[in-house]
Amino acid sequence: MSAWLRDETPLSPAQSDTDERRTDRPDIFRFLRQGDEGRHHTAHVTCAGADWLASAAAFPRSTLALWEARPTAPAVLPCGTVFDVVNVDMLFGRRMLDRLWSEGPGTGPVAAYRGRMLLFAAPGTAQRLPALLHWEEWGDAVPPPLCHGTGDAVTIPPLTPLEPAGPRWVVAPDTRHPWLPGPEVMLWACVRAVRAASAADVRISIFPPADQDAKVYDVSRRR
């Protein structure tokens, strides 16, 4: 695994049908557009991103209506159709993000929730990643991720978080068709994160560690 692996997972029917929605959407889109100019979209959900998230729900328009009424409240969305989620420890998740953005293809949406990092992945990832880790040489060193797929649901941060220290989007959805890493890319990131941590353990530095919360990811690098 000397280089990151590109995943060519096709879009799901739910994703491909998103553009065919009716145009009379709830006013949550107007709410999200307010203040768009000049703000950092990496950490804020855009109108298109909210549309994509809602497409995972059984009743997308009802979900959008709920967000219109309570844009600062978390929401629960099912996995397995539009996306899977790889749920890892916060520290290990940051290491994965460092590898994905510095050496790999970037990420799809990523959220921080209650001390965990939620990496949104292509449908099917939750089923395949544990098996790939089992056969990987470095797999035993990877903190076991919680993989959420078909039949599971996850709680996502609010569209507009109130507190910076609370649940938040690290890389927020910003398009109706976001690129989502598949199981091979996630495996690559896990292994690279473990190797980086192993190398760091044997290095001695006189400098304090950098502020991990200050990192900014250039979303324009995503495929």
3D structure, described in words:
By secondary structure, the protein is α+β, with helices and mostly antiparallel strands. The chain is built from 7 helices and 7 strands; from the N terminus they run H-H-H-H-E-E-H-E-E-H-E-E-E-H. It has helices at 13-16, 28-33, 47-54, 60-69, 90-102, 125-135, 183-201, and strands spanning 75-78, 84-89, 110-113, 116-121, 146-148, 153-156, 168-171. The chain is globular and about 50 Å long.
Summarize the structure.
This protein has 223 residues and is α+β, with helices and mostly antiparallel strands. 32% of the residues lie in helices and 14% in strands.
Rg (CA only): 18 Å
Query: Got a strand count?
Result: 7
The DSSP helix count reads 7
Mean pLDDT: 80
Helix content: 25-40%
Numbering strands along the chain, what is their spatial order in the largest sheet?
5-2-4-3-7
The structural class is alpha+beta
Topology pattern, helix = H, strand = E: HHHHEEHEEHEEEH
- How far is the N terminus from the C terminus? 20 Å
Beta-strand percentage range: 5-15%
Overall geometry: globular
Largest sheet: 5 strands, antiparallel
Low-confidence stretches: 4-26, 35-41, 202-207
